[in-house]
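Quick one, T. Sequence first:
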Amino acid sequence: MPLPAQWLNYPTAGVPRLPDGKPNLKAPAPRTPDGKPDFSGLWDTERNRPCPADGCFDQQVSQEFVDFGWALKGLPYRPEAARLVRQRNEQNGKDDPGTRCLPVGFVRIHTDALLRKMIQMPGLLLMLTERNASYRQIFLDGRPLPTDPNPSFSGYSVGKWDGDTLVVETNGFRNDLWLDRKGSPLSDSARVTERLRRLNYGRMQVEVTVDDSKNYTKPFTVRLNLDIAPDSDLLDHICLEDEQDAPHLVGK
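Structure tokens:
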């Protein structure tokens, strides 16, 4: 008999359930011992992009994964940023960090079709992601953002509570990040603010405000929804494992 190698169907402890045993996704959001909302859990992106005629299979994505500003009817690009996006599209995304198996940054992780796990503890919110088995730290211990950070893929994040909303500020990005598949840029001078609210057991709302004067004429805010993924767990998704596509992505 086959022996399952992952805990994909093992019941998650503490999940509120309906009489038929299914998770009660509309149950109240859990709270930590100090009364704050607890974001811990395995989270999935809202799959709001319509499926093609032949189906989405297991890789249906969000609208924001393809075009981060689709709900805003476009992002406020500066002329040079608009030209860069057009150029990236003409190249069919061959220079996309994700295509090259590099980290894609946490904004795109919020819209990714792969799962992420949040682990909340005093002073820290830790995010583990299936994509390249990577991580992100949000410090809740009162420390300030670094004033001269070494640029990184996910930047440096600190959070504080505004009632039941966790407000996270991030700086220190690399200068070559993409916000979406179409190539909307994010510069090293950007500052990103997230407002995380757990609406109930099954859904989290994340408002992402990007302030990047190098690439955009004004700050903009995109609202995302995440859905809990109970009775499952993370699986490694290592981009470079048996990767054979990159030599064929030549663009125009």
